[in-house]
Design a protein that fits this description.
alpha+beta, six-stranded antiparallel beta barrel, 5 helices
Length: 317
């Protein structure tokens, strides 16, 4: 004959082991601002990078040519106001420095240093614009835009991390398209849902600092974590109370994007339902128990199971 049992609640300390999705605390997408062939080695999934490393170097030759052409156009828009002096090439050199300074190609300090090295003892022939101010401004903007584009040919990693995704063609940069994703490997964040019956106890325990949090790797090794977020209201989209644990991945046990177990424990007690372990059945959609309804008919009831103790399993939800 089949045994039945009337289910009742009893108080037990909170000890929850829940499925959690692990994500990086910080991540970044490498998005080139210009297109071109890469002259650097293509990024590969699993590659470790450090903040400040050059991760992408686009062929800069066409962009360097653009800078040279833009600077030449701007230089052509300036002419010396006086003929060259008869002091060898000094007058020509000083006029050239004036043009570069007017263009913004050299700073005032560089200008003075180069003038001193040229042996100039008198003011040079000032470079005067041969074009109108509107044209000059437009040419100056073209020079700056060309320099900015050249600067964008090199991309540095803003964080320490690991390459977790790359474009199908990692040897070509396409402006505006994600070339690769870099995720920080430590610290990490575990996100999971907490059953409603445990929210109040965990909130109280969090305020008292009496929660122990561990994140379990597949190998059985663990990392200590901190409960950094616990929702007080149900998420309308999921119907769950979301929580987050932040932890260091110092032993490199965890991979962002995968699922692991998080265990929360506290002496705080909660009324919980327990059933004999033999009552738990499992199918593809998860655990369930058979219940006897008021009319005597048997039905299946899906359950979220927790820890087992003395042959009985806690029903979390």
């Amino acid at each position: 004959s089949t045994k039945t049992e009337t289910v009742m609640k009893s108080e037990h300390p909170v000890a929850l082991t829940l499925d959690a999705n692990i994500t990086a605390l910080h991540m970044t997408n490498i998005i080139p601002k210009l297109s071109g062939k890469l002259v650097s080695a293509p990024l590969t999934v699993g590659q470790e990078v450090k903040a400040g490393d050059v991760v992408v170097q686009v062929d800069a030759a066409p962009y360097q040519q653009s800078v040279v052409a833009a600077e030449a156009q701007l230089a052509a828009a300036y002419v010396p106001s006086q003929p060259e002096e008869a002091s060898g090439g000094d007058g020509s050199q000083r006029a050239k420095l004036d043009v570069w300074y007017q263009m913004g190609a050299i700073s005032k300090v560089e200008y003075n240093q180069m003038m001193a090295r040229s042996g100039a003892s008198a003011p040079s022939a000032a470079a005067q614009p041969a074009a109108d101010s509107g044209q000059i401004a437009q040419l100056q903007q073209s020079v700056q835009a060309a320099r900015d584009m050249l600067g964008n040919a090199t991309i540095y990693s803003p964080i320490d991390g690991r390459v977790t995704a790359v474009n199908d063609n990692p040897s070509i940069a396409v402006a505006g398209n994600v070339l690769a994703t870099i995720q920080q490997i430590t610290p990490l964040v575990a996100t999971f849902a907490v059953p409603e019956d445990y929210i109040r106890a965990l909130t109280d325990a969090k305020g008292k600092g009496s929660i122990t949090v561990t994140v379990l790797a597949a190998s059985g090794e663990t990392e200590i974590g901190e409960l950094t977020y616990l929702a007080t209201e149900k998420d309308n989209a999921t119907g769950a109370y979301m929580a987050k644990v932040t932890f260091n991945n110092t032993k490199n046990l965890f991979v962002p994007g995968e699922f692991y177990h998080v265990r929360l424990s506290t002496p705080q007690v909660v009324e919980q339902i327990t059933v004999p372990k033999t009552a738990i059945r499992t199918k593809d959609s998860g655990d369930f128990v058979y219940i006897v309804k008021d009319d005597g008919l048997v039905d299946a009831k899906a359950v979220l199971t927790g820890d087992e103790e003395n042959g009985r399993v806690i029903i979390l939800d």
